[in-house]
Write a sequence for this structure.
């Protein structure tokens, strides 16, 4: 009897296992198909040209450059693991929420030990250790704050897809709110960043990050976003992405006026054509900006052509030029000489002071930008 009972029990267990197998076979797991039209994101650890350009006094020999490159290579594993886990979803969500398709097939992000800002959109730069200024180092973001900064970098990069050939006639490309300034392009980037981050980062952690002084210090347009975009530009896909709101916003709307950067007064010597003021022209076409020397000795942009290379590279009226390719410029003619010297080879790296913060800009001939 015991033997018969044991045989029956074994049979029932086998039958249950077969039934489970049949059920699994009948309803197989169907993963979402992977998209092949998204850009490949590659992280570069050897960014020696950028390192020397932005920190000429700090990286004065190859040993120091190599030392910090090796530091990045030893400390990028956690960052890479986060990207491997979340990167695919971030790229998809940004495209869906912006309404702007990725056109770049590859995005190279320069991982650096130190940088002068939390992120740089073009060329894409991301600091792992901290934000190093001339006289102090600010500890860099970690954990989910670092993830949020990465989303912000890619959000800005996504908005720049409309600058690629074939999109220059898109109505939103020339919208005033796409102007690269702390209260226009940067605010649109934050709007897209926050909409994506809410789907990626836990709500309590996200609130803790955006309430931090570090986040607000590196996002000067945060109050503009809070007061005028956060609850009126609610992004959703596919009904109301960012491009939907941009296409409906008049060029002369109150929001456009509110976010306009203050235009610096034109200085007297700027109109006299002296050595303190000069129209920048180079490379067979105008760079398209005028500068005048300030009492502090820096050259300030007093006028800019919106069709010129300088404007398309992110230079704005009021920017004070601190360094070009890591070197101090003495006057306007020296500035032109330094730009011409590198424009058609490795490009021109310019550090400017805008709204009290240092920003890095990269000038490349039009055919080399992407």
């Amino acid at each position: 009897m015991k033997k018969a009972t044991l045989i029956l029990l074994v049979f029932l267990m086998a039958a249950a296992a077969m039934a489970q197998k049949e059920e699994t076979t009948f309803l197989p797991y169907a993963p979402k198909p992977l998209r092949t039209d998204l850009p490949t994101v590659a992280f570069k650890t050897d960014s020696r040209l950028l390192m020397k350009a932005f920190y000429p006094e700090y990286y004065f020999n190859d040993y120091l450059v190599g030392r910090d490159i090796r530091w990045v290579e030893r400390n990028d594993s956690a960052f890479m693991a986060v990207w491997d886990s979340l990167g695919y979803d971030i790229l998809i969500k940004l495209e869906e929420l912006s309404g702007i398709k990725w056109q770049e097939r590859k995005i190279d992000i320069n991982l650096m030990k130190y940088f002068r800002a939390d992120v740089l959109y073009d060329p894409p730069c991301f600091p792992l250790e901290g934000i190093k200024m001339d006289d102090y180092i600010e500890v860099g973001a970690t954990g989910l704050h670092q993830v949020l900064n990465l989303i912000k970098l890619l959000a800005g990069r996504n908005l720049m897809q409309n600058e690629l050939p074939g999109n220059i006639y898109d109505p939103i490309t020339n919208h005033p709110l796409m102007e690269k300034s702390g209260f226009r392009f940067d605010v649109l980037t934050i709007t897209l960043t926050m909409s994506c981050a809410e789907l990626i980062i836990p709500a309590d952690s996200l609130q803790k990050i955006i309430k931090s002084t570090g986040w607000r210090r590196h996002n000067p347009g945060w109050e503009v976003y809070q007061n005028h975009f956060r609850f009126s530009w609610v992004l959703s896909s596919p009904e109301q992405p960012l491009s939907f709101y941009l296409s409906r916003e008049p060029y002369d709307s109150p929001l456009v006026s509110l976010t306009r950067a203050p235009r610096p007064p034109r200085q007297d010597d700027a109109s006299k054509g002296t050595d303190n003021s000069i129209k920048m022209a180079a490379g067979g076409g105008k760079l398209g900006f005028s500068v005048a020397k300030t009492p502090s000795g820096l050259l300030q942009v007093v006028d800019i052509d919106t069709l010129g290379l300088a404007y398309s590279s992110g230079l704005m009226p009021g920017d004070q030029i601190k360094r070009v390719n890591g070197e101090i410029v003495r006057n306007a003619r020296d500035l032109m000489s330094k730009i011409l010297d590198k424009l058609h080879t490795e490009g021109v790296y310019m550090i400017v002071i805008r709204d009290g913060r240092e920003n890095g800009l990269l000038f490349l001939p039009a055919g080399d930008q992407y």
Notes: The mean pLDDT is 81.
